[in-house]
Amino acid sequence: MEVILILFLLLIVFLFLYFIFKIIKWILKDKTRIKGTATLAAVSVLLILINKVFFTKMEFIQSKAISNLYIVKNPVEHKDSLHNELKKVVLKKVNNEVLNQIEKYKKINPNDSIVELKYTIDFYEYSKGSMFIPFGDAGTYYFIEHEEDPGGFSVEVLDMYTNYHIASFNLKFCKDDTINYFGTIDYYNGWKIIKTDTLINLCK
Fold this sequence. Notes:
By secondary structure, the chain is α+β, with helices and mostly antiparallel strands. It has helices at residues 2-27, 31-55, 79-97, and strands at residues 59-62, 69-73, 106-108, 115-117, 119-125, 165-173, 181-189, 192-201. The longest helix has 26 residues, at 2-27.
């Protein structure tokens, strides 16, 4: 059944590419068609740019399955502006969930019985897999509705999408302290941390 489905999809891809090839060949036969197509393409690009700059807003989508995960749709390109918006989301969430119930997030490390503070928030850019690759990556949008799936027919885990990882916030206890804490946010470019900001610091 799977082989038949793959062959069917490959046939669709082949027919689509063949159709595109025939259109391009038809356009190239006439200068008027070439000019008209070039004009249409230029106008389309201009409209897309105008829509992106003036009408497309950045959106933070909280995962329904992973409470401390946000998928960022249409992130602004200006890094400082993006980082400022991330910090606002983090501080709002921490104020609502953590500050008055810190005991809820205390965990004992089973390896050495040390009390640790476990609270993180992750941000990934919105992405969606190609319809032409049915058994490939679904994209980060998958995690809006689903938890990570490390096994089975199709593996989907966040580690597959490091290129879309934007930032991680971590709340930890101060050194030799199980009362006071500090929170930092790391900004990523792939695996690499490019910048770190301290958002909360109650350390003495």
